[in-house]
Amino acid sequence: MYLDTIIVDETPEQLCDRLASDPFAGFGPVEWAQPFHTIDFYRAGPACAQAMKKHPNEPRFALGTALASIAGKRNDDAKKLLAPLVAKGNTSAILALAPI
């Protein structure tokens, strides 16, 4: 029943982790064939950007912001965020940068 549903507010960090989760962490062909199709740019972008501002040294929020940017076809923005992660050897950042 719908009345039994409890709505819990999520922090920007939680939203970023959920909405822009690492698409390369999956093992199936769908994740690898279309890695950015599940990322909602309009919701994940602002949440990840806010989380990244609050935690500038946390690479997962920079990666989430970059992934959301790729999903939103903002590849130049994504490249700026991915470059430092690639320099540090972040495998997901390397994979995200490859198709753009």
TL;DR of this structure?
The chain is mainly α. The chain is built from 6 helices and no strands.
Description:
The longest helix has 14 residues, at 41-54. The mean pLDDT is 85. Helix content is 60%, strand content 0%. It has helices at 12-19, 29-33, 41-54, 59-71, 75-87, 91-97. It has one domain. It is an all-alpha fold. The protein contains six helices and no strands. It is globular and about 35 Å long.
Which helices and strands appear, and what pairs or packs with what?
Layout: H1 12-19, H2 29-33, H3 41-54, H4 59-71, H5 75-87, H6 91-97
Helix pairs in contact: 1-3, 1-4, 3-4, 4-5, 5-6
User: What oligomeric state do these chains adopt?
Assistant: single chain
Largest sheet: none
Structural class computed from helices and strand pairing:
mainly alpha
Indicate the radius of gyration in whole angstroms: 14 Å
The general outline is: globular
